[in-house]
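Researcher: I've been going back and forth with a colleague about how Translation initiation factor IF-3 might be arranged in three dimensions. Neither of us has a model we trust, so I'd like an independent prediction. The organism is Nannocystis pusilla, in case that matters for your notes. Sequence below.
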Amino acid sequence: MGRRQQKPKPRVETHRVGRRIRVKEVRVIDANGEQLGIMLTQDAMARAEEANLQLVEVNPKASPPVCKIMDYGKFKYETAKRDREAKKNQKTTELKEVKFRPKTHDHDFDFKTRHIRRFLDEGDKVKLVVQFRGREITHPETGRAILEKVIRELVDVATVLQLAQMEGNRMNMVLAPKPQRPGVVKPKPPEGPIARPAAPPPPPPSTDGEDDDEGYDDDFDDDTTGLDDPDADAAN
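Model: Here is an independent structure prediction for Translation initiation factor IF-3. You can compare it with whatever you and your colleague have in mind.
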């Protein structure tokens, strides 16, 4: 047997219109908002039809009910539009998470910082995570330097909601969108990578016979939750 097709649910009108208004008398407001007083319902409907409009019951609990002469189709459209705008303004704030490594390169830093800016512009909070591995945990100042660098880049759009703190082998900080002052137009972020000063010369080789990068997976080191750098993928 085939699946039974469900019948579409009938639309529920929130207002009684025209001949669905069953009361004998109504208080009438015309299309310009002028009070016309109490009238027989049939006379009010005739007046609406003369203007090629509809008589719509807007306050059924009043005595007598209040009706308005209007373009009901336009009224429904504008009401639905206001409802959509209200839902858009009630967007649920999400907490995004972006991961860094103490040795995050400038290219990856710029890429991730642009995404953090986008998250903040969309009204979301962002949790910054610096992931330490191995002996890196003995130098937490490197993670703090990364987070302070992010703050400097985003000072125009971000405020610190939670200061940097260690949790196991991770250093976390939470940013929130900076409240925008009324009348201030937010400048657009520059496109493309941000110019960086020349990198300092590499440190001399370690004399203790240990390799600081031993056992590290580069792809994992600079992992960003929910972010994939297309340039990095193309290079691979």
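Researcher: What would you highlight for our discussion?
Model: I'd start with this: Residues 95-182+217-235 form a domain with the Translation Initiation Factor IF3 fold (CATH 3.30.110.10). After that, consider the following. The first strand starts at residue 25 and ends at 29.
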